[in-house]
Design goal:
Elements (H helix, E strand, L loop, with lengths): L1 H14 L3 H4 L1 E5 L10 E7 L4 E8 L2 E11 L3 E6 L5 E8 L3 E6 L2 E7 L1
């Protein structure tokens, strides 16, 4: 019984209240690979469902804005004028955001 309660508590902390848990600025906790397919350097999530980001794709620096949605397990970024991207996403202890796409994981830390 105690194990179930502890596991339930851990899951609630990891999920952290869906989109409201994302609000704020997140910076990459890891160094980018030399020529990343796609690497997020910084993300800023707003309460109104919009975001801004700086990222790297190959040699190119990208600056993106758009809308986002987060359901506690999937983060969808809908950049203005570009194709939407979906990530498997988890928030750990309210301070680490782990995103996975195409088998690659990236960790961002809340500032």
């Amino acid at each position: 019984m105690k194990r179930r309660i502890a596991l339930s508590t851990l899951l609630l902390i990891a999920i952290g209240g869906c989109s409201s848990a994302l609000v704020g600025t997140w910076k990459a906790a890891d160094q980018p690979p030399e020529k990343p397919a796609f690497f997020i350097k910084q993300l800023a999530f707003n309460e109104n469902g919009t975001y801004s980001a700086s990222a790297k794709q190959g040699e190119e620096d990208l600056f993106l804005r758009g809308k986002y949605d987060f359901n506690g397990a999937t983060l969808t970024l809908k950049p203005d004028g570009k194709a939407e991207r979906q990530y498997r996403a988890l928030i750990w202890w309210g301070r680490d955001l782990e995103i996975t796409t195409d088998g690659q994981k990236q960790r961002l830390r809340k500032q």
